[in-house]
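Weekly puzzle thread! Below is a chain. First person to post its structure in token form gets bragging rights.
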Amino acid sequence: MSAVGSPRDPVRVVVADDHPLYLEALSQTIERRDGLMLVATATDGEGALEIVRSHKPDVAVLDMRMPKLDGREVVRRLRETEPATRVLFISEYSGGELVLQALTAGAAGYLPKSASGDEICAAIARISRGESVLPAEIGNELAGTLRDRGATGTHLTAREINVLELIAEGEPATMIAERLHLAVPTVKSHIQNLYAKLGVNDRGAAVAEAMRRGLLS
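Winning reply:
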């Protein structure tokens, strides 16, 4: 079993899901994983808020749709009181509109419930390091949503919008360069310009912030 974090400084995790069997299986997977420490679980949104505020974990793994408070509302409230806790959504729904809502609310990642235990644990580790997680299949749905909305932002150039859409699909800079017939340094420059214009420093936040500002509406 490979470690995904330092044994001396494990990633502290809470999980909230209203499906008992899934919650139990995911909890056991995290407990067995080197570098991760499960500190609490909950079965609804109000319970999720309580355990995050009590335990102040590094990462909260939340179901998107839960009783009492849905995942988006939990994240919105946490951004005000527990901004250090990063959120990974895991949901059986992966439509572009729902993913967009999750990112806009402040999530750092989004995975389908079909993801394996290894994929989920790896995503938790990445998110704890400040990265964002958005699998290609979900990114494709998200990019489609952006296109359907007629993305024409007033402060982003047409090329920057092209790059933003491919970022949403989960493409690395090398692939973006190939698809847009650009040099890799040029693509990286566009990405940095996007981050600077939007005041963000990662991919998921760039897409969410562009939508929040109405640049991709």
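Puzzle host: Confirmed. Bonus trivia for everyone else. Residues 153 and 215 are 4 Å apart (CA to CA).
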